[in-house]
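Meet our chain:
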Amino acid sequence: MAEHPVIGYLVWAVLFGAIFAWEGIGLLRPDDGFPILSDATNTVMRYPAGRWSLFALWL
């Protein structure tokens, strides 16, 4: 086991990079109908079960 888990940092960097790329594409091209994360969150938050699910995921 390495002292510095470089692969873990790399995985997190790729994950956050993908999220930022998703948001960037959605914000730069609003006419394509590409959903941004706030659209997805708003859709889930319409329903009480969705609110509780997001809260449980947050916890």
